[in-house]
Design goal:
By secondary structure, this protein is mostly helical. Among the domains are: 72 residues, Orthogonal Bundle (Helicase, Ruva Protein, domain 3); 46 residues, no CATH class. The protein has 5 helices and 2 strands. It has a two-stranded antiparallel sheet with strand order 1-2. Helix 4 crosses helix 5. The model has no long low-confidence stretch (mean pLDDT 84).
Length: 182
Amino acid sequence: MEKQQAKPDKVKPEQAKPDKAKPDQPKPAPVKAEGEKDLKYFVRVRNTDLDGTKSVHISLTKIEGIGRTTARVIARLANVDPLVLMGKISDEEADRLRKVVEAYGPQVPRWMLNRPADVYTGEGKHLMGTDVDITREDDVNRMRKIRCYRGIRHETGQKVRGQRTKSTGRTGTTVGVRRKKE
């Protein structure tokens, strides 16, 4: 019988144990990619933290009341490229965006507003942020108060906009349709 010689295990370079750093030397700072040097991860506009890693027109849609079209119009009015990353815009451009967002309503035609005719004043407004929630709640409460059909549907928790209710929107454990007893 021949003895088999044990082959030494080859160690790949990536599997080699790293040398321990000397305790008196500081650890090097993590190297950032070239595009991340001056990237701000959050930009504050209208009491909302916008994602700095997304483009301007996408980040602006995180503010309630601003959709894709409105975001592009705001970027154009502020003279900011809508496709550049939000975190890469300068402080001056961010200030221009904030000013345009605050004064958006009077700068656009009435048909671009999300509330073209206010119920009480009749003027056109563009609601953003918490104003959207507050106004929606006020509108529902007004409908409940005057006892209109939509207000009653809101009160009872039923569908408001004419959807069918025979088979959808059921709450509880009810399944199927009950037949009349003969």
